[in-house]
Amino acid sequence: MYADDLKIYNICSNYEVLTKDIATIYNWSLKWLLPINADKCNILYLGSDNPKQTYYINGTELTKCVSLSDMGVIVTSTLTWSEHITKVVKKANKILYLLGKTFAKADVNTVTKLYKTYVRPILEYANCVWVPTLQRDINLLESVQRRATRIPYGQVRPSYPDRLNLMKLPSLADRRVRGDMLTTFQAFTNISSPIRHLFPVNIDGRTRGHRFKLEKDNFRTSIRQTFVTNRVFTEWNALPPEVVESASVPRFKVNYDTFRNRR
């Protein structure tokens, strides 16, 4: 619950359960003089077999939608991320355009710092939640970094891989893998982590490698395959104990980067 935003999510076989929950929230809002504007409320249905029941607040039918923004991330009814990626790329390109105009004569070090401070965070916000699965989306995200690395070189410039090396920048795809590893590490090391239960440990696999090896999840859909606990499975289980059992987040980053650079 937020100052001006309220969301209800429920998995139920009987839509009456969610109907009662909505009524309970509405009555609560009246009691505390925090009225809910039904005209601004939306329903987002997830799942291909969703019955898509109609819901009401005080007699007003709630508007059905196929996508909505939740904490800055666009969630769609198909749980695909092309719409969100298009939005963040557009936003990042606007910032990059201003930086290019303002710092057209800046050196490599300055442009790198500007990009890492003002542009890259836009492309990576909450990326443990969303991940590009289509090659066109992967290329679209990487195109922003390609454009950023051109700024200090003008018309005559090295190739993109060489520019990354000169500016000490990994590809965004590699950054996403690193972010997933960091999310997994934090889930295991933070006792109060709200996502710890999403990472089941494979008890049978403890005799080899590190002691936090993940259990394989049996998935039947491509959407489930790209869920964070499934997409980190191979990379996380292959990490050596000295990386997984790092004493802190900063130490994990150093150990992971060292391990990746050796590969």
Automatic annotation (TrEMBL):
Domain of life: Eukaryota
Name under which the protein is recorded: RNA-directed DNA polymerase from mobile element jockey
Organism placement in taxonomy: Eukaryota, Metazoa, Ecdysozoa, Arthropoda, Hexapoda
